[in-house]
Amino acid sequence: MPGRLLRTVCTGALAGALALAAPAAAAPADPTGSVGGLLTRLRTLYQETERATEAYNAADEALRKQAADTRRTGAELAAARAALQRGRDEVGRLARQQYRGHGELSPYLGLLLSADPGEALDRRRLLARAARERAAAVTRLQAAEKKADALARTSRTALERRTALLGGRKKQKEEVEAKLREVERLLAGLSPEQLAGLASLESRQTAGAQSALLGSGALDGTRTPSEAGAEALRFAVGQIGKPYEWGAEGPDTYDCSGLTQRAWAAAGREIPRTSQEQWATLPHVSLSELRPGDLVVYFPEATHVALYLGDGMVVHAPRPGARIKVSPIAANPLLGAVRPDPGAPAVDTFAPPELPAGATDGADEGFAGTQAPETEAR
């Protein structure tokens, strides 16, 4: 089947899969408290939390870059001020020499009264050279003053931006914590039967979406990763079982994009910090071209991301209260996929990393069990 037609068929099948897997994200909770209504409400809260988390991550990354820029500007300003002081010292020295009549700046009267023409010419050359040096020193001083003034303005701007970014990060942190408290309150009010019902309903919906996606043929065929993709997967599988924590980048806890970023960093490739940036800046690939190690991005606003393991499964940090695990690729509503190393060839053979016991255990939404979501972060 031609590639374009295959992508069209896959897209249609994927739309059906997503219809099964993705309840309306903005739908209100069922007032009757039914399991379906509770699941919709929880999914909405988790998606809102991830959206706020990724906004916090973006603000945190911007703050880091700005802090580095502020330090660099500060160092340049200090160097410029030191150069300015050296220039002032040099001009002052020349001025003192001229005033005292010492060194190279002898009075013109001495030149006019000299009885030796050769000595007069030498003295004239010395005077000319001293004048050039003085002019050059003044020029350097003026340039140093301009540079110091410009850097001082840049430094003030950098400090003002850093202050604004600190305020923005604080606001995003408060929003995440508020969402997590809302999730915690909802979970705390559920009975064990309701929690079991939520897990059962989620499992059925995921199974239906996964069956529809696999049935579309989009993921058919044997695919191998690049060398870097295989290394990124090995790193991600090595983190299975570690807790999700919003804003975390390892080594003990991760959020979704913290895991994908660190996994690819372990493979020698730096990628953006947030799932939105990963989706916006990395080359897109269709599901029919998906290979292990590629990043699978979820939800319309690209607020969740996972690493493709192969055979229709992904490795990811699901949600607050959950642990890094292996899940069906259709456990969340798919947006698309991106490839951090588009120019790298696939290896000829690939043996997927061995999964630890319990790698697929736990609900993808993070509400199975009794542990309340974490509400602390950096």
Could you list some keywords that capture this structure?
single chain; 378 residues; six-stranded antiparallel beta sheet; 8 helices; 57% helix
Question: Would you write up a description of this structure?
Answer:
β4 (313-316) and β5 (325-328) form a beta hairpin. The chain is elongated and about 95 Å long. The protein has helices at residues 3-21, 35-100, 108-112, 117-188, 192-215, 227-238, 256-266, 275-281; strands at 284-285, 295-298, 304-310, 313-316, 325-328, 334-338. A six-stranded antiparallel β-sheet has the order 1-6-2-3-4-5. 57% of the residues lie in helices and 7% in strands. It has 378 residues and is an alpha+beta fold.
User: Helical proportion?
Assistant: 55-70%
Our count of helices gives: 8
Rg on CA atoms, Å: 33 Å
Q: Separation of termini?
A: 51 Å
What does the secondary structure layout of this molecule look like, with pairings?
Blueprint: H1 3-21, H2 35-100, H3 108-112, H4 117-188, H5 192-215, H6 227-238, H7 256-266, H8 275-281, E1 284-285, E2 295-298, E3 304-310, E4 313-316, E5 325-328, E6 334-338
Antiparallel strand pairs: 1-6, 2-3, 2-6, 3-4, 4-5
Helix pairs in contact: 1-5, 2-4, 2-5, 6-7
What's this, in brief?
This protein is α+β, with helices and mostly antiparallel strands.
